[in-house]
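Minutes, project check-in
Item: structure for the 307-residue chain
Input as provided by the requester:
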Amino acid sequence: METIRIPNSATYSPIALADVIFAAPLASRLLLGATLPGRLIQAAAFGAYAGSALGDWASRRGVRKIDFLKTYSADVRHMEEMSESQRLADVRRISEELMATPAPADERPRDVVAVDVNERLTSYIAGVTGQRVETSSSVREMTLARLLMPFAVGSCDILSGDVAVFRDTGVFEPHVLAHEFCHRKGYLKELEAQALAYLALSGSQDPRLRRAALAERIYRNLRVLDGDDPARYGEMLDETPLEGGVLDDFRRLRPPGRRDGVVSSAMREMYDARMKLTGQNGLSDYDRGFTNFLYTYEKSAARGRAA
């Protein structure tokens, strides 16, 4: 099988190079009262960042990407809408499946889980395209993106491949990692990253990975059903079979009393607009689009019209 290796050299830097580029001159001014040292650091970081991005771009040119419509009979523009009753049934069915899937007996650090997730994602995509696209498994805990997108739990710099996960999401974390690693492999649309992460992890023999995929599917259906009302989300959780630590993870991800502040709301609107400019449907691709995609794909697969 053909193998494409994307270096992602910037991901091995102790500090995100993009952060150094933006922050070095300001930090130098505040700490030293001068901008020259910061500009020198900025220039060095920019050179390393640009070199890494160029190397990744050159390697990525040989990647055979999945044709979603041909493979799954669904893509960003071709999906059937789920009804409310279908979503409720999906939440019930997948919740029961999640609770029936044994929880892993051991706790693994994020860097170990990241390696497992990356290998599973690489193998799944290779099974579709016949090509292994190998990338870094490095993950950061903090980048400036956390300040720019306070509503996000993770991010990926599409040029450098830098991935960060900002907080512990419990059962969801392998899916969060898989989603960001999809971007690292060149799948830039959020719906595609959501779908590939789910399809790869849901077919895994590792219960940790499978449970993450199931949890993400439940959560995204609930986000559509709750009408952007955190209190309603909490009420709907109480009606599911979810319990124990899994239920706690769902509540932590969307606390009943939490509403977006002014900054977070403004950034959401900007991010939604950016997504639409790049041929996506906006932030709805994370939940409504993702769940509609799975619904359309599974209907087509049942009829023998999809892989």
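Outcome recorded: The radius of gyration is 20 Å.
No further action items on this chain.
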